[in-house]
Amino acid sequence: MHLEDSHGRSFHYLRLSITEACNFRCSYCLPNGFSKPANACRPLSVQETSNLVSGFAELGFWKMRLTGGEPTIRSDILEVIEAVARTPGIRQVALTTNGYRLRKIARELRDAGLHSLNVSLDSLDSDRFREITGQPRLSEVMDGIDAALVAGIPSVKVNAVLLRGVNEQDLGSFIELAKETPIGIRFIELMRTGQNEEYFLRHHLPVGALQFRLARSGWKPLEKRAGDGPALEYGHSDYRGRIGVIAPYSREFCRSCNRLRVSSQGGLRLCLFGEGDFPLRTLLQSPSQKGELVDTVRALIDRKPESHLLHQGKFGNASTLAAIGG
């Protein structure tokens, strides 16, 4: 069984936010820190998450990424990963984190069933890191990345948001990080949200210049692998790691979309920049509801738009990226 929309795209990848809370104050996302909404509900429980993932696995989804906010804030993060990893049909469990707890829990994450780890890291300079994140924790995050590699997590990547006038001088250092380390470096184009208009206008940096730099330095585009989405990956014979580029403003970006998103309260979002979520939580209270959950998602998939409307300055209800995990 697989899920396909009216534009001929097949879906096998679910990005599941497990909390909206975050302990960093990234300048492009939560510059004033996280404030819990007055009407906020608790995030999905481990059992609700298990029921959700089981339903999506029935639809042919085999890759699950846990996001936030900052997912490792949850005290039961290992239980969540174990519940997802043991679901029949799930072949890959991934986690996106700011890395502040990695040094302590990397091996436990691996033992719980984690296959892939992405660490948000926007500068390799301690002062710039603090300026961007509001936290003096660069050394902790770097130690956490080392711990993840030592723990044997099969895939470790770094996500760096490109910020004009802020971290451009870090590009060379990031690329050199891939020289001797089997790590993926992902450069992500800054995206407009409901709360970052002024910041976006000042610091948006298109990825074209970076792609030209990579080509000039001998980096070659790589063929996409099974499960790959819109990211473009590059390899170099002299480097152990890879470089990835995520360009949401590319005209072709949405053509290869293979993912859906669910919020920490169980709202299905068909597009990151779509209008509104479709509530699924009432269908997650018992494993016996799986058939109804599957039928509901199947009925909704044809509402997925062909493309986001970022080029028109429309970003749906994405007020911040922390709320749905980017």
What does this structure look like?
The protein has helices at residues 46-58, 77-85, 102-112, 126-133, 138-151, 171-180, 197-203, 208-216, 290-300, and strands at 3-4, 10-11, 13-17, 63-67, 92-97, 116-120, 155-162, 184-189, 220-221, 232-235, 242-246, 259-262, 267-269, 278-279. It is 28% helix and 18% strand. Strand 4 (63-67), helix 2 (77-85) and strand 5 form a beta-alpha-beta unit. It has one domain: TIM Barrel. It contains nine helices and 14 strands. With 326 residues, the chain is of the alpha/beta class. The longest helix has 14 residues, at 138-151. Helix 1 (46-58) crosses helix 9 (290-300) and helix 3 (102-112) runs parallel beside helix 5. It is globular, with a radius of gyration of 19 Å. The strands form two sheets. A twelve-stranded mixed β-sheet has the order 9-10-11-8-7-6-5-4-3-12-13-14.
